Request: fold
Amino acid sequence: MNDNTVVRPVFFVSDRTGITAENLGHALLTQFTSIKFEHHSLPFIDSEEKAQLAVDSINMIAQTSHQKPLVFSTLIDDDYRKIIAVSNAYIIDFFDTFIKPLEQELCTPSSHAQGLSHGISNEVVYMSRMEAVNFALKNDDGTSTREYHNADVILIGVSRSGKTPTCLYLAMQFGLRAANYPLLDIDMADGRLPEILLPYRNKLFGLTISAERLRMIREIRRQNSEYASMAQCRKETRMVQLLFEQENVSCIDSSHISVEEIATSIIQLMKINRPPIY
Reply:
């Protein structure tokens, strides 16, 4: 892609956070790798005045960029949707696309309530997710093992292999209590699991990573250090792979896959019965 590549503006419009519009929109746009997109988020469009301001922003970008913007909308209110519809843009209205057919299939009208997907529509489920986040933070990086008996999963692997972000994603997205324990040289020297982890063997899941990828990540954290050297990274990745094989620990290579993919793979491979997220 060169500097003369045309950039297509994209707007994500929502009456609440815009997370749903962005997630759905991004999922579609990733299929168009030859096009560069410029993203604009317009959350909390919850009045006619805000809807009109959104239209003004969209039209201004359309005029200055000389490109018709794409608009991904999850607006619920019919009046606000009608206002957005007059903008100089190509509009993908997710609720118009999906809700109306569902109403017909289910033979019942939708609630047309705002913010249910990312609001506190279910207090018990919301609090469960927040408790899971607190659990992940309290049991991060082996700082404490006293609550491991309450964990749904305990991630193990070398430092910087993706344990912490995966734990937080499992907590935020799925409400799972995820702890993580870093494996150091001394832990892996005899090819056996640390004694502290043995009572929780059925909760363990390993993350492996390539030495090249590990070195790149560690260089950002501690540049030109022994910790980030290729020799050290090769040593640790080799040791952890042998440990997982010796101890029959299920694992996944985190080198080139996203946190979302890692988390979903863990749930599937461990057959975790996750709680509802809505």
In short: The radius of gyration is 23 Å.
